[in-house]
Structure formats: structure tokens, C-alpha cells
Amino acid sequence: MKVDTEMERLLDEIPMLHHGDLLGRRDAAGDDGGGGGGFDVSCLIRELAEMGVVEGDDDDGMLSSPPGFFGGGGGGGLSPTSSLCFVGQDGGDQHGCRFLQQRLDDGKREVDFIFAGVARHAVELMVNPFGNYLMQKLLAVCDDEQRMAIVLTLTKDPFVLVRISLNVHGTRAVQKLIESLRTREEIQLVVEALRPGFLELIKDPNGNHVVQRCLQSFDANDNKPIFEAAAVHCLDIGMQCHGCCVLQRCIARSGGEQREKLVAAIASNGFELAQDAYGNYVVQYVIDLKVPTANASLTKQFQGRYIHLSMQKFSSNVVEKCLKVFKEADKATIILELLAVPHFEQLLQHPFANYVIYSAIQNSKGSLHSALTNAIRPHVELLRTSPYCKRIYSRALLKK
Questions:
Q1: Bridge partners of 55?
Q2: CB–CB of 118/84 below 8 Å?
Q3: What is the pLDDT of residues 276-316, one digit of tens each?
């Protein structure tokens, strides 16, 4: 009884992380506040070893279980508190977490004991380089009640789940959490906990995977807060490397009114997005949807600016897409604008605009096509020598 009382006292002395310490600041023991520096129970493990509750291996720092620890001998199985002893720092973390993961395969009794020992430390473990794997395995085998307890632990304080999702280790554990959710209540708790950080998550190299996992795992109704945030911040999100991918995924996973609002918001910012290294992909994605109102909005913004867009690296791709997808009347507007430029040969020699001219030849017909080829023929000698004109000259029609 004395040993059990002393062990409980030591366990209660393990520092609980609060929001100010959790993941949010660097310390001497961890490089990012979440890489294992905030959860050190190595001293506890040593004391427990001295008390005979666990055995320490002097050779490699790995912990071994005493007789009866998992149901053998006369010890009565793994206790709820002693399971925590295997989640220490450095080598103890690695071997201990692996040991506990293996024991999770031994049946519900072991799952219950391990859950009781580590569940209240879910936040710390999820951002631990080794503990996150233990949490992922636990989420895969725990029952509905246990999963809800973990969800409540992770969502009771604002921004905690967001900070975990931004962590390089935590993002994996949160994605596993999202995959494991079964009830509408669990999903709503998680989505609401992530809501304050949607913009930061979408643009983050770790956090964007959490948002994409929500889009993949939940239905359109549950993802409504994500769609709303994406529509409001579409310009900011679309002009960022991770954000442009999430934005396209949002369009693909949404439907009905939510999709209409999102596409309309992107189209209304089409001119700015088209000129961006990442935003141009979002605009091309919207053009390919062939939504009449969206393409009409883009046409209105682009009209009178096609020369400007054609002579830029990223927006020239958008003009090419317009020539492939837009209706014939809108294609004619683009081509007539190209033909009206005072020095047409400058477009032929331009490193980006020459691709637009090539697409115009491919996607025009009738009198408009003839007008285009007639404007090109006087510069045939230039086409032969300029490095940017060879593709245009290679067209069989222009060789005749």
C-alpha cells in the first residue's frame, strides 16, 4: 500500500501543460515546444525503478515490466498508472511507446489499462515524437466512450487542437483522430475547435493536411465552416502554396449553395489570382468547371487586359485556358484583342505571349483563324530564327 500511495503522489507531480506552455514557446529541452521538450517523466521513471515498480535496464535505457505487469505471475495485470511509466524522455520515450503500442494488440483489458494511464496526457503525447504514434494506435483500438473522452480533452480549451495540428508530430495524430470519429457530436466538437485557426491551418505545411483530412472524412454539412472560411479568405488562401491546394479541394468536396458561393468568391478575385504563382491554378480550376456565372465574371475582369495577362508568366497560362474553354464569342474577344496590338511581332517573340498565340491558332476557326494566320505570315522569317517562335512556325498551316 505504501508503494501504491507513493507512486500516485509521484504521478500527480507530473507537470500539466497549459495553453501558454503547450507548443507555443521554445524551451531548453525542445526545439519547438512540442518535440518532446515539455513532457519529461524520466525522473519519475528512475524513482519508480528504485521503488521496484518498474525495472530499469542500465545497458540501453529500455524499461522492462516486472512479473505480473501484463497479467503474468501474481501482479494482476497492467495498472492504470504504471502504463504511464513507459512514456518518458529520449530513449525511454521511444522504447516505452513502442512497448505500449504492442500491448494495445493484446485485448480490451490492456487497452483499458493503457487508456486510463495516458488519456489525460493526450495533448502532450500527440506532439511528442514518439508519443504521437502511441496516440494514433490508441485511437484505432479504443471504444466509443474512450474516444469521446479523448475528444473532450483535446477540445475543452480554445486553440489547443489548432496548436497540435500545426505541430510536425501533432498533425499526424490529429489526422488519425479525424479518421476515427464516428458520431456527429464528435465531429462538431473537433470542427468547432479547429474553426478559430482555419486560416492559419490552411496555409501551414502541417496544418493544411488536417483541414484536407476533414474535407476527405466529413460530409459537406460538417465541413460547412471550412467552406465559409475558404470563401471569405479565398484571395489570401489562393495565393499561397498549400492554400491553393486546399481551395481546390474545398470546391471538389462542396456542393449546392456552398459550392456556388465559393466559386463566385474565387471568380470575383480572378484578376488578382490569375497573376499569382499559385492563384493561377485556382482560376484555371474554376474555368474548367464551366460555371456560366463564374466565367462571365472572369470575362468581365479580363476584357481589355488580355495583352497584359498574356505577357506574364503565370497569367499567360490562364489566358491559354480561356482560349480552350470559353465560349466562341469570348474566344473571339481574346483573339481580336491580340490582333489589335500595334506591334504584333512583339507578342510572337515574347517568352510567354508566344504560347498564347499558339493556343489561339489551335482554338480558333473560320474567318477569325484566317485573320490570325494572316497577321502571323508577314513575320515568317522572324518565326524561323526566334527561339520563342519555333512552335508557331511548326504549324503546318503557316508553312504553306
A1: 64
A2: yes
A3: 999 999 999 999 999 999 999 999 999 999 999 999 999 99
CA 127 to CA 215: how far, in whole Å?
A: 23
C-alpha–C-alpha distance, residues 124 and 36, integer Å = 8
Pairing of strands 55-56, 63-64: antiparallel
C-alpha cell at 138: 490508441
What grid cell was written down for 381?
A: 522569317
Residue 159: which of 32, 35, 21 has the closest Cα?
21
pLDDT band at 157, cuts 50/70/90? confident
158: pLDDT strictly greater than 50: yes
**Cα(282)–Cα(284) distance, rounded to whole angstroms?**
5
User: What grid cell was written down for 148?
Assistant: 469521446
Q: How many Å from the N-terminal Cα to the C-terminal Cα in the chain?
A: 100
